[in-house]
Design a protein that fits this description.
By secondary structure, the protein is α/β, with parallel strands linked by helices. The chain contains 7 helices and 9 strands. Strands 1, 2, 3, 4, 5, 6, 7, 8 and 9 form a 9-stranded mixed sheet that branches.
Length: 249
């Protein structure tokens, strides 16, 4: 539910302009846990638990340490107003966030300043960032909004430093996700109308192919499921949404 723009060698954009406009209109409410981004606020702790677990495993950091990303650079692509960037900064990383919507970046900078956090935010194309690679690259709920998914993944891979870790999350293209994430969630107001196009969702198998083509190996996907008892939680059930790691081949 965030947005990012990537420009390839031909200058073609991988995200549709209307996507950036849609998310830009939501910028003012991004940090309101009861606003239009309420679902992201509920989803974020689940994603962060996955990130922390795999950061500790991949980099061999102390699971009890407060700053496992100390001395490392992190990039969040499609960062919105910084909902993931700020926790990554608190985990010790030097964080860069990029988003297609200028309104989101303005909201992200304002909130980070209020929290006393130094985060390097950029509006526009991923390819327009200053040269450099990152130990951790994240892109959460973004690839489903991207027109040229192969180009997008290649651009992400180009930003991943040797020995680095990439983490992606996205809805799966299943009958269940159409019913619950698109038809149901938007109709009930849990997600703003027009946020998702089910035809743009990608399956874990398709994600694996994209990552392989970009020179990356995909880890075992974990589902993000929902039950009345547990709420949103990590699961082996991939029907709705999944989160996955990738590393260089």
């Amino acid at each position: 539910m965030t947005s990012a723009t990537v420009t390839g060698e031909t200058g073609s954009l991988t995200i549709r302009p209307e996507e950036a406009e849609h998310f830009g209109k939501l910028a003012a409410q991004w940090w309101d846990p009861k606003g239009s981004s309420a679902m992201l606020h509920k989803l974020n702790p689940v994603r962060l638990a996955f990130v922390r677990d795999h950061v500790d495993t991949h980099f061999g950091t102390d699971v009890a340490g407060r700053k496992p990303l100390e001395g490392k650079r992190a990039l969040d692509v499609g960062c919105g107003a910084g909902l993931l960037c700020e926790p990554l900064a608190r985990l010790g990383a030097a964080v860069t966030g990029v988003d297609a919507a200028h309104e989101n970046i303005a909201a992200a900078r304002l909130h980070a300043d209020g929290m006393g956090l130094s985060i390097d935010y950029h509006a526009g194309e991923l390819a327009s960032l200053p040269a450099g690679q990152f130990d951790l690259v994240t892109s959460m709920e973004v690839i489903e909004h991207v027109a040229d998914k192969a180009l997008f993944v290649r651009e992400l891979a180009a930003r991943l430093a040797p020995g680095g870790l990439m983490i992606l999350s996205t809805p799966n293209r299943t009958a269940a996700s159409k019913l619950l994430l698109v038809d149901g969630a938007e109709m009930l107001g849990h997600i703003p109308r027009g946020t998702h196009d089910w035809d743009d969702f990608i399956t874990p198998e398709e994600m694996g192919e994209l990552l392989t083509e970009a020179g990356l190996d995909m880890g075992t996907p974990r589902g993000i499921a929902f039950t009345a008892m547990k709420g949103l939680h990590l699961s082996d059930d991939l029907k709705l949404n999944y989160i996955v790691t990738a590393t260089r081949q």
